[in-house]
Specification:
Length: 204
């Protein structure tokens, strides 16, 4: 009988794959360099993903506005924002415990004092807290039901006038994701399109 081993997905809550630590460097637009530790069992362990780069480019917030990185992985989005906006409170959540541990260590290693990392499914870990800006590079591989639920939870955790950003690959359903976001918020636009990715923005 043939036995098919299922590969561990990056959204597994408790990864068991053997550790494979790596260091990833990322230069922000203002020239500052961030250094991250990554590992097996998390999303994009070898580099800052191209979609993530497009998302970081597109997100704008005033220093002091609160920010949530939904599905933070090892932390490139939330930590970039926390470094750029030192007066903002930054929250980072992920279902993957290994990703959360890396994000916590990466925030500390990059001198970030205004970010907290919480582990849990969707927005459950933040309770009734609301944010001015929420951004996500969503877990497309987890399927539409998960991604669409995260979009709805994000809408419900935004302050009035708050902005939601999501990035998706043009060839991996960015069109249908935009339609869903538009239907959920009643508005949408695309502040960034590049490298085969589209960043979708909506306002509550
Ligand atoms: C495409 S990755 C993006 C990671 C990181 N933001 C980046 O850009 O490198 C999506 C992330 O969402 C997380 N995720 C998947 N399902 C989730 C859920 N139900 N609740 C919270 N996070 C989830 C995954 O573990 C993964 O880290």
């Amino acid at each position: 009988m043939e036995v098919c081993a299922l590969a561990e997905q990056y959204f597994t809550p408790s990864p068991t794959s053997a550790h494979e630590r790596r260091t990833v460097r990322y230069r922000m637009r203002d020239g500052r360099e961030l250094v991250f530790e990554t590992d097996a069992g998390v999303f994009s362990k070898g580099r800052v993903d191209r979609g993530t780069r497009e998302l970081i480019k597109a997100v704008t917030l005033d220093d002091g506005e609160s920010f949530l990185d939904l599905g933070c992985g090892w932390g490139p989005v939330g930590i970039s924002v926390a470094v750029s906006c030192p007066r903002s409170e930054v929250w980072m959540v992920d279902v993957n415990e290994r990703a959360c541990e890396l994000a916590r260590a990466n925030a500390q290693a990059n001198g970030v004092r205004n970010a907290a990392v919480l582990c849990g499914d969707g927005l459950a870990a933040v309770g009734g807290q609301k944010f001015d800006v929420i951004a996500t590079n969503p877990p497309i591989r987890a399927g539409k039901a998960v991604v669409y639920r995260l979009v709805e939870e994000a809408r419900d955790h935004l302050n009035p006038g708050g902005r939601f950003y999501a990035v998706a690959r043009t060839k991996q359903g960015a069109g249908s994701l935009r339609e869903f976001i538009h239907a959920t918020f009643g508005n949408s636009d695309e502040p960034e399109i590049g490298g085969g990715y589209r960043v979708i923005r909506a306002t509550r």
